């Protein structure tokens, strides 16, 4: 059995990770004290970590998202944002990640007077500081909240900062009642600017969310996307038949940013052994493995892969295949993706795979 410690040593790629979902518990406590935030349920770091995991593991995406009020609450100054971003980079590098796109919503961090540009600048400064000398290539995704009306503004912000380390644009938040087409002007702006964007779709809502994200909004990737399995029928003999939407997703190689543990915690998947990633990997969809929210789900990318090894019997070739899928799908120039695949990822796995 491949161990988590062994997986931590190989080069990995992370495409779906939320900055405000990955804080160190002790950092939350210290920032709360420094910024005068008094609403934490406890100031004991160990108990706080347990509280975050317990609050997130409810089987409800809405309840899961409620825990973010505390992390966002302590991320309202430039110093706090830079520290969180620096520690994020340090933690990902320690987990063996060589390329990461970490997302955050600038509009959630302006309560104490920061401008949107100041929020982005602070986070990018932190990413640079935390990744120096580690071999980790960090980029940001700027997220707009789908229940708000600032998506075009955030898309413009993403384009304004793309030469400084912003990889692209995203929308997130509760899917039900907030279809991606509400933000069509932002997606069209990104396309006119030759920008990249992903859309949270097919997590807590079904096929219509995926269809709109792809066929109306032209998303480059799908955040989660696991409900595409609703368009696949498996007969008693195990033969799978793909519907038109599922067939399109597979045939045009739409990357699926899957987050197995988080999907179980939010109720998007009933259990790890029944998570759609098993079937979708077998059918050779462009599946990638991600953490989503490391604090809330109590995971690392290494632990997510270890979970798949235990649940589906994956070996090194599966882990490498999923990793290369992610690198192919990154919002990074082609030559840089190719260099990381050929010079870093493949050599890193070469001694492990016959």
Automatic annotation (TrEMBL):
<feature type="binding site">
    <location>
        <position position="200"/>
    </location>
    <ligand>
        <name>Zn(2+)</name>
    </ligand>
</feature>
<dbReference type="GO" id="GO:0004000">
    <property type="term" value="F:adenosine deaminase activity"/>
</dbReference>
<keyword id="KW-0862">Zinc</keyword>
<feature type="domain" description="Adenosine deaminase">
    <location>
        <begin position="11"/>
        <end position="346"/>
    </location>
</feature>
<dbReference type="GO" id="GO:0008270">
    <property type="term" value="F:zinc ion binding"/>
</dbReference>
<dbReference type="GO" id="GO:0009168">
    <property type="term" value="P:purine ribonucleoside monophosphate biosynthetic process"/>
</dbReference>
<feature type="binding site">
    <location>
        <position position="173"/>
    </location>
    <ligand>
        <name>substrate</name>
    </ligand>
</feature>
<dbReference type="GO" id="GO:0005829">
    <property type="term" value="C:cytosol"/>
</dbReference>
<feature type="binding site">
    <location>
        <position position="16"/>
    </location>
    <ligand>
        <name>Zn(2+)</name>
    </ligand>
</feature>
<keyword id="KW-0378">Hydrolase</keyword>
<dbReference type="InterPro" id="IPR006330">
    <property type="entry name" value="Ado/ade_deaminase"/>
</dbReference>
<dbReference type="GO" id="GO:0046103">
    <property type="term" value="P:inosine biosynthetic process"/>
</dbReference>
<feature type="binding site">
    <location>
        <position position="18"/>
    </location>
    <ligand>
        <name>Zn(2+)</name>
    </ligand>
</feature>
<feature type="binding site">
    <location>
        <position position="18"/>
    </location>
    <ligand>
        <name>substrate</name>
    </ligand>
</feature>
<feature type="binding site">
    <location>
        <position position="292"/>
    </location>
    <ligand>
        <name>Zn(2+)</name>
    </ligand>
</feature>
<feature type="binding site">
    <location>
        <position position="20"/>
    </location>
    <ligand>
        <name>substrate</name>
    </ligand>
</feature>
<protein>
    <recommendedName>
        <fullName>Adenosine deaminase</fullName>
        <ecNumber>3.5.4.4</ecNumber>
    </recommendedName>
</protein>
<comment type="similarity">
    <text>Belongs to the metallo-dependent hydrolases superfamily. Adenosine and AMP deaminases family. Adenosine deaminase subfamily.</text>
</comment>
<keyword id="KW-0546">Nucleotide metabolism</keyword>
<dbReference type="GO" id="GO:0046936">
    <property type="term" value="F:2'-deoxyadenosine deaminase activity"/>
</dbReference>
<dbReference type="Pfam" id="PF00962">
    <property type="entry name" value="A_deaminase"/>
</dbReference>
<dbReference type="GO" id="GO:0006154">
    <property type="term" value="P:adenosine catabolic process"/>
</dbReference>
<dbReference type="GO" id="GO:0009117">
    <property type="term" value="P:nucleotide metabolic process"/>
</dbReference>
<keyword id="KW-0479">Metal-binding</keyword>
<dbReference type="InterPro" id="IPR028893">
    <property type="entry name" value="A_deaminase"/>
</dbReference>
<feature type="site" description="Important for catalytic activity">
    <location>
        <position position="224"/>
    </location>
</feature>
<dbReference type="InterPro" id="IPR032466">
    <property type="entry name" value="Metal_Hydrolase"/>
</dbReference>
<comment type="function">
    <text>Catalyzes the hydrolytic deamination of adenosine and 2-deoxyadenosine.</text>
</comment>
<dbReference type="InterPro" id="IPR001365">
    <property type="entry name" value="A_deaminase_dom"/>
</dbReference>
<feature type="active site" description="Proton donor">
    <location>
        <position position="203"/>
    </location>
</feature>
<dbReference type="GO" id="GO:0043103">
    <property type="term" value="P:hypoxanthine salvage"/>
</dbReference>
């Amino acid at each position: 059995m491949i161990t988590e410690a062994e997986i931590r040593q190989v080069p990995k790629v992370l495409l779906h990770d939320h900055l405000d979902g990955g804080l160190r518990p002790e950092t939350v406590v210290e920032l709360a004290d420094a910024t005068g935030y008094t609403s934490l349920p406890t100031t004991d770091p160990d108990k706080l970590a347990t509280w975050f995991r317990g609050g997130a593991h409810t089987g409800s995406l809405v309840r899961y998202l409620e825990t973010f009020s505390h992390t966002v609450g302590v991320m309202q100054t430039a110093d706090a944002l830079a520290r969180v971003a620096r520690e994020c980079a340090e933690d990902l590098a320690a987990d063996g990640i060589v390329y990461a796109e970490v997302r955050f919503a600038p509009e959630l961090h302006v309560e104490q007077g920061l401008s949107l540009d100041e929020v982005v600048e602070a986070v990018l400064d932190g990413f640079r500081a935390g990744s120096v000398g580690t071999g980790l290539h960090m980029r940001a995704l700027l997220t707009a909240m789908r229940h708000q009306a600032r998506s075009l503004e955030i898309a413009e912000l993403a384009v304004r900062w793309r030469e400084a380390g912003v990889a692209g644009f995203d929308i997130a938040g509760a899917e039900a009642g907030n279809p991606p087409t509400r933000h069509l002007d932002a997606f069209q702006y990104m396309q006119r600017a030759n920008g990249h964007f992903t859309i949270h779709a097919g997590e807590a809502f079904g096929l219509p969310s995926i269809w709109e994200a792809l066929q109306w909004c032209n998303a480059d990737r799908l955040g989660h996307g696991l409900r595409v399995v609703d368009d696949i029928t498996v007969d008693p003999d195990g033969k799978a038949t793909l519907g038109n939407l599922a067939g399109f997703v597979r045939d045009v190689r739409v990357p699926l940013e899957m987050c197995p543990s988080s999907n179980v915690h939010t109720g998007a998947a009933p259990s790890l052994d029944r998570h759609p990633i098993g079937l979708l990997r077998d059918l050779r969809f462009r599946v990638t493995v991600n953490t989503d929210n490391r604090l809330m789900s109590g995971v690392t990318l290494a632990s997510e892969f270890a979970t798949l090894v235990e649940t589906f019997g994956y070996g090194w070739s599966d882990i490498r295949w999923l990793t290369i899928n992610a690198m192919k799908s990154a919002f990074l120039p082609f030559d840089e993706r190719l260099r990381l695949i050929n010079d870093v990822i493949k050599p890193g796995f070469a001694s492990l795979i016959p």
